[in-house]
Design a protein that fits this description.
mainly alpha, 2 domains, 10 helices, Tetracycline Repressor, domain 2, Arc Repressor Mutant, subunit A
Amino acid sequence: MSRRAFHRAPEGERRQDLIEATLDCIVEFGLKGATLRQIAIRAGVTAGLVRHYFDSKDQMVAEAYRAVIASLTEKAEAVKGNPETRLREFIVINLTEPVANSRSLSLWAAFISQVRVDTTLAEIHREGYLSFRNALEGLLEDFLIAKGQTPADGECRRLAIAINGLMDGLWLEGCLAADLFRESELVTIAMTSVEAMLGLPLTQTNNRT
């Protein structure tokens, strides 16, 4: 296990470093195998400094999961451009590196195994899912309006649930067995499937994939 070189850092940066070290250790040792000592070593700090920022390992794990979940929505919200571009890129982002890779899969597997038995992680998961789905719902509404359509009541919510489920499945397949798929194949499948659901083209990404 590599150790990061110690450097003086502001409070917020040091806390983020510890969260990243926690995630690294979870990937390497699993949720139960990642100890405070290992996290401190990975972050290049003392165990005492870790306790200055977090009361317990459980708190560190919860904050690490919150960071993982939040990063997905943040990536989606950072996409710029017209409604079609933003919807397209939202799909691409969630099916390609760094969102779709072996590290992401390891973290997902570690956390999801505890969501049903840990109420704190379950609440973080619920909040993250709703935030992600709401972001997708907003992208869909903007896209449909830009295409001259007026979405029926609840239509964008239903589409967001369906498209999120589609991307979850393709993401999992890509992370588990990326070598079984041609380059950009899963993105192309996602695009054509979303087009079928919407009854509208997302042609630009189809051309580039």
